[in-house]
Amino acid sequence: MLAQLVYCRPGFEGECAQELDALAADAGVPGYARAERGAGYAQFVLAEPAPFASSDDTFAWRRQVFARQSLAVIARLDALPRSDRLTPLLAALPDGFAVADAWVEPPETDEGKTLAAFCRSFGNALVQGLKKSGRMDKTSPLRLHAFFPTGEDCLVALADVRKSAPWPQGIPRLKFPKDAPSRSTLKLDEAFAVLLDERERERWLKPGMSAVDLGAAPGGWTWQLVHRGVHVTAIDNGPMDEALMSSGLVAHLREDGFRYAPKRTVDWMVCDMVEQPRRVAERMAQWLAEGFCRRTIFNLKLPMKKRYAEVQAAFDAMRRIAGDLDIRAKQLYHDREEITVFAQPR
């Protein structure tokens, strides 16, 4: 292992680097973070090469807010010949190991989009090459990633399939529901997929459960809950989608989302209001501290500068108010200058 590679939304490479440095410092891992603005990825370069260990959670994908994917780099290949990229890549792999699958990925940038067709074609060739060399084993816990920031350069990396993002480029490709009232519905759909595991989704999103949606209008987030059979109290002074209201699962209250409190505990509170991140985080923590809800998912709109510091300050404020919390957060593919947070008491 030479480095840790993370994919991210272009423009947030600096935040990824700060996060990598912080995780490495906490674990006592020597090295340095490296990032180029707009590249769509960042790296933590180890001071000395180290054995790859799938059990090492120092840079685990789920621990990072701004990383879409987190991988262990085992080889760097520069200036690959366009006539044959496969031979040097296979030669760079260590002997005696096998992978369950192999993905070839570009960054989520304008240049990366021009490489998409090549990556699809080369991905097929790589899988065939791995099979012929006896390096494919569907029972392996490992997946091989060939990351091409350019058409000639490649970072060869490994991921533990149980601990990494299960989507190419770390992006779940979701389809917009034609009857949803706004595209913001995809944020909550992605949040359920990224921030919860399959068992949690089965246990916590059952028909008949209750939820409050703060700042609900026109109902993009409410739609996701209603789609799962959850009863929703929608809090907003604006109008809700008429078709959504006809479901019989939505009660609309024209009240201030920052002042509303339910009369009894609800299973979920969700919130996508435009407000200062610290104020939103503190209000969400109050809901948990007062027992208004069992768990919450909400968005934090980030400032233009010191975004990583603002996120950490928001989490610290939540813990001061609500005590020991299980906080999970990601900058989702459908987020922009924001992150999406899940929180519940431990």
TrEMBL record:
InterPro entries: RlmM_FDX, RlmM_THUMP-like, RNA_MeTrfase_FtsJ_dom, rRNA_MeTrfase_M, SAM-dependent_MTases_sf
Residues of the active site: 301
Domain Ribosomal RNA methyltransferase FtsJ: 182-275
Alphabetical list of Pfam families matching this protein: FtsJ (PF01728), RlmM_FDX (PF18125), RLMM_N (PF21239)
Protein name per Swiss-Prot or TrEMBL: Ribosomal RNA large subunit methyltransferase M
EC annotation from Swiss-Prot or TrEMBL: 2.1.1.186
Compartment(s) of residence: Cytoplasm
Keywords assigned: Cytoplasm, Methyltransferase, rRNA processing, S-adenosyl-L-methionine, Transferase
Coiled-coil segments on the chain, per record: none
